[in-house]
Amino acid sequence: MSTVEEGTTCSQEYNVETLLLSAVVLAVPFYGWTLFRIESFPVGRPDLLAIGFLTVYVTVCVLFRHQLRLDIPSLLLLGWVAEIIGVGVWIFLTGKHILDFMTVFIQLMLLVGTYVAVVNVRLSENNVMTLVRLWILSSISMVLFGFYQGIARAFSLPFAYLRFNIPAPGTVQRAGYDSLFPEVFRVASVFVEPSWYGAHLLPPTVLCLVLVAQGNRKTLFHSRWSLVGATSILVAGVVQSASATAYITLVGALFMYVVPVSIYRGPFQLHHVLSATTIGVLVLASVPSLRVVALELVDLSWEIVVWLQTGNEAVLSFASATHRLTNNYQTLQYWASLDPVHILFGQGLNSLANTSAVQGASSSNSYLQLLADTGAVGVGLFILFLTYLFWKLVVTPLEHSSQTRVANLGIALAGSVLTGAMILFQTGYLRPARWSAFLLAGIFLVTVNQPKFNDTGRTRSKEQ
């Protein structure tokens, strides 16, 4: 085979891998749940089938093409899985909650397997930028559907309550479904659960805010205002989710990362951040105004359409916060009461579902849930995984000082990883919707820290 033909074949193979990787990135938020519902019946688990097939296919391509490459985050994750499997064997031998263990274990294995597989796919820096851009655009499409949901509810249009991603039955929402709260807020887009929707939007939102704050208009988009517009839409989506978890995390990320990092790297473009935030608020404000018009057409009173924090809402918010604090304290107490071996290695995944020592079937804090399930060793390995990703991304400008675009995106992705880690303090378990940021961070790091690639992702030969 000639050199030209060989190059063309390799280019085509890398394009196939890039397409598969794009499919994986888009599918990750839907791990582990039924995708559609016909009346009251969920339709299978096509997401598990699809993501399992893609992961296996990418892994096989990698193993046949070159030696398996394990970066430090992959080793930490595999060590974490090995520890979990060891506890799982103990659960199986003792006849304890093996079914509860397996429901979480299968999803966790897919998440870890996907990470190990995709960081072995060879991409060019341009292709990594494309993946990040695709992630942002897919999030924007979810926001646009969320906007439509609000309008559709006001005007009784089709697909106002269309469900793509159906989790297990949850508790009554704190807001969004009573007569005094406008239905255009507290939407869930494709996630059904509004807090999941807000949590999924946060990492790409923070990534865009970091780029906007530094005026990095050419990192992802050709126009500064394209970036500002994308950021505005994402901010509006987070606000429209009406998720307290999303609000707290967004404010925390702004003050803990976006502003300090942008000032340090300079110049901090405050007016760009204000522009994006203002546009997002105005876009969101236009949605309830449509509801006002719609309700006035049928002679309903203004009091019904005004968005107010009612007495009931305040009570429910306080009750929710109190429940979470109590739940977290009980989880910590439960872990501390275990014998030394289980303090180190945990009781196995989903262990809190089988104890009366904790209110509810799980902890409202992912780290405490992992502490009870995988012990100090397991949660320590997972925290090291997050810390390593964040640290390597933060030092990207030092390691790639001559590549402005790479440095800017590394800093922005670090904000996404930090945001994803912050969300886990307020949500139970490692929901797949939070995994996308970690996945893209790993792909970015292995790409920019390997030998230079040309635009097809093919390694340049020494002869060139």
TrEMBL record:
Claim: Zinc is one of the keywords in the record: no
Cell inner membrane found in the keyword field: no
Keywords: Membrane, Transmembrane, Transmembrane helix
Protein name: O-antigen polymerase
Transmembrane domains' residue ranges: 18-36, 48-68, 75-93, 99-119, 131-151, 195-213, 225-242, 248-266, 273-294, 375-394, 406-429, 435-453
UniProt superkingdom: Archaea
